[in-house]
Write a structure and sequence with these properties.
Layout lengths: L17 H15 L5 H8 L8 H7 L9 H11 L10 H9 L11 E4 L2 E4 H15 L9 H6 L3 H5 L8 H9 L3 H32 L4 H11 L32 H13 L7 H18 L50 H14 L13 E3 L5 E4 L1
Antiparallel strand pairs: 1-2, 3-4
Protein name: CCHC-type domain-containing protein
Keywords: Coiled coil, Metal-binding, Zinc, Zinc-finger
InterPro entries: Znf_CCHC
Length: 385
């Protein structure tokens, strides 16, 4: 069946391509009458030009010479409607597109339909990557292979070689991946992920257990660690100080020894302050769980039992509040209440106070200022403390 050739206007609308029209007309003539003469083709062309259009007026103005042969007519046609050169991307642009050509983890082991043919998604990805490498003119070398390989799903990467010297070798290996091994690798990765999530959940549970210290123990520790203060026993009477019984914490401040300072410094090195990101939080939870398993839930914090520092809080020994780990106020003026998420655990409070007592605020000049955000009764931010 002959190809339907639409009427040609010649008014340069976006929907019309002159070069495609003349090609379609030639194909139609070859199908209808392969032995047609130039005169027959020239006469037939007039019937494919829209009535009253710029194309029809052009045809009517053709000279005798231009109507003498099909070659002369097509030359006149191309002069009137020259072929527009298609835009082309540079090698660098194709390389950028190649780097953004990612294989999703969810697509591994999935069948896609390409040209009425069912293929594995990683096979389709490899063909598309190879085409981009060809367009970028890097298919014969190893340019960008390691960067693209790094972005592949873990299950695919594990079944590939460490290095590749050409894109053809690289993409061919991807297309040849054994589906049984690939699916097994995906299954093992998911199983490892599940076990890690269970382990993290157990760590969180141990941390919660470690936080169940009584307020009486907290106050006793703080009284013993407060700088320059005399700890007053809880049973003391305000009206009868002479009847107050002595307490083991009721002593004047004494300067820390060099031995104490060195022990505290080593404790800070053992448990570095973690950054406030996903990896930092995971390491912090691991530190907490290790501390609880080693020392137990009710062990008192001393220079020999250094305690992990909460990510996102101020640097230790930087003039911070020992109760919330931020700057701008002291522990006595801290507005955080017991149970507040901004409040530090009793053990961390004790450790920060002990470090400050032993080493002083030596980090004050280098620490970033971290402030506590104050909220009103409706939970609206009212300012920094």
């Amino acid at each position: 069946m002959a190809e339907a050739v639409p009427l040609f206007y010649g008014d340069r609308t976006e929907a019309e391509n002159p070069s495609n029209f003349i090609k379609a007309f030639n194909r139609s003539m070859l199908f209808l009458n392969p032995l047609s003469t130039d005169a027959q083709k020239i006469k037939a062309l007039a019937n494919y030009l829209r009535m009253g259009s710029p194309a029809e007026r052009w045809y009517e103005d053709l000279t005798t010479t231009q109507l003498a042969s099909w070659d002369e007519l097509t030359k006149a046609f191309n002069d009137r409607w020259p072929t527009t050169k298609s835009a082309s991307q540079t090698s660098e642009e194709y390389q950028t597109e190649l780097l953004s050509h990612k294989m999703l983890k969810e697509d591994v082991g999935v069948i896609r339909t390409v040209g009425q043919q069912k293929v594995w998604s990683h096979v389709r990805w490899a063909d598309e990557a190879m085409e981009l490498a060809r367009l970028a003119k890097i298919k014969g070398g190893s340019t960008l292979i390691w960067q693209v390989k790094k972005q592949l799903p873990q299950a695919v990467r594990k079944l590939l070689d460490d290095e590749y010297m050409s894109w053809k070798t690289f993409t061919d290996d991807i297309k040849k991946l054994n589906m049984s091994k690939l699916k097994q690798e995906c299954k093992e990765i998911e199983e490892r992920k599940r076990r890690e999530e269970e382990r993290d959940q157990k760590l969180l549970q141990k941390v919660e257990v470690a936080k169940r210290a009584t307020m009486a123990d907290i106050m006793a520790q703080l009284q013993c660690l407060t700088i320059g203060q005399v700890a007053v026993p809880r049973t003391a009477s305000r009206t009868s100080p002479s009847t107050t019984s002595p307490s083991s914490c009721n002593m004047q401040y004494t300067p820390p020894t060099e031995e104490l300072k060195e022990t505290v410094r080593k404790g800070l090195e053992q448990l570095p302050h973690q950054p406030d990101d996903e990896e930092g939080q995971r390491r912090y939870l691991s530190q907490l769980a290790s501390w609880t398993m080693k020392h137990g839930e009710t062990t008192r914090v001393t220079e020999h039992t250094p305690y992990p520092l909460k990510p996102g809080t101020a640097m230790i020994c930087s003039g911070e509040c020992f109760r919330c780990g931020t700057h701008g106020h002291g522990s006595r003026d801290c507005l955080t209440l017991e149970g507040d998420s901004s409040r530090l655990s009793c053990n961390e409070t004790a450790w920060r106070a002990l470090c400050n007592r032993a080493l002083g605020p030596f980090n004050r000049s280098t620490a970033y200022s971290i402030r506590l955000v104050a909220l009103d009764d409706q939970g609206n931010e009212t300012g920094l403390l």
